[in-house]
Design a protein that fits this description.
By secondary structure, the chain is of the alpha+beta class. It has 3 helices and 6 strands.
Length: about 110
């Protein structure tokens, strides 16, 4: 097992606890975050907040992030409005669907214990 030297020892990047899927509808990005273990869901629910996701996408001038919780699946779905610079048909962005943007969320630092 390798250690990530960019995080303090009591923290870990989200991608060590969860995986993600991304999709789009027009200028709206959907990112689902799914815990590898349902035991980690509450920890993720507390720390992966809509406000924190909104801050991650501040450079895209995102105004609204809505989180839908699916506790029986250990998952959350984030709907991020106006994140795709107009969407596939308008944006010159190489990733108009936003598939790679899930990695932005997976880099969130999670505090494992205090």
């Amino acid at each position: 097992m390798t250690t990530d030297m960019s995080f303090p020892s009591n923290t870990a990047p989200l991608h060590r606890l969860a995986h993600a899927r991304a999709g789009d509808k027009g200028n709206r990005l959907n990112v689902s975050v799914i815990a590898y273990s349902k035991n980690d869901f509450e920890l993720l629910r507390e720390q992966v907040t809509p406000q924190r996701v909104k801050t991650l996408f501040a450079d895209r001038n995102v105004q609204v992030v809505t989180r839908y919780e699916l506790p029986k699946l250990g998952a959350m779905n984030f709907v991020i409005d106006e994140a795709l610079e107009g969407g596939v048909n308008k944006s010159l962005n190489l990733d108009g669907h936003g598939k790679s943007l899930s990695f932005r969320i997976l880099e969130i630092e999670i505090i494992l214990f205090s």
